[in-house]
Design brief:
single chain; 143 residues; mainly beta; four-stranded antiparallel beta sheet; 1 helix; 3% helix; elongated
């Protein structure tokens, strides 16, 4: 028999923000909080946000160079970033590689930040390139 559980808040018994979820096969557990994306954004090449979670703004730093500012900061710089792009109609069939650049507004920067995520879009030929749509997300601990 199927049932429906309707609640507004989940709180762990031992630690309020930590809830273990039993995985497939009932042999492992996953921490629900650790498994959730802490931010994501979908924006166009002009840095106009189409939709987002925990992203205050996106800045276009030049061809293929972007950054987004988080609404709620990461607790430390040990968070993961991933993303994807969609090209324009003339280059849809060409391969693109998403490259995360930690810190700074350009490819030579090396400072990581808890409040700002920096990234470049690199065309398969190795040059910075503006694509029609960019999607970026982060996983890690929030402050």
């Amino acid at each position: 028999m199927a049932s429906t559980l309707k609640i507004n808040t989940l709180t762990g018994v031992t630690t309020a923000g930590s809830i273990a979820v039993t995985g497939e096969g009932n042999s492992t557990t996953t921490n629900l909080q650790q498994g959730l994306a802490k931010s994501w954004v979908n924006h166009n090449k002009g840095a106009s946000i189409n939709d987002s979670l925990n992203v205050a703004s996106v800045t276009d730093n030049g061809t293929g160079q972007h950054r987004h500012t988080l609404t709620n900061l990461h607790a430390n710089v040990s968070y993961a970033v991933s993303g994807s792009t969609i090209g324009d109609s003339s280059t849809q069939s060409q391969a693109y590689t998403y490259t995360y650049i930690s810190g700074g507004d350009n490819a030579s920067a090396s400072v990581h930040s808890t409040s700002v995520v920096y990234y470049n879009i690199i065309h398969h030929g190795g040059t910075l390139y503006d694509t029609e749509m960019v999607q970026v997300l982060t996983h890690g601990d929030l402050a």
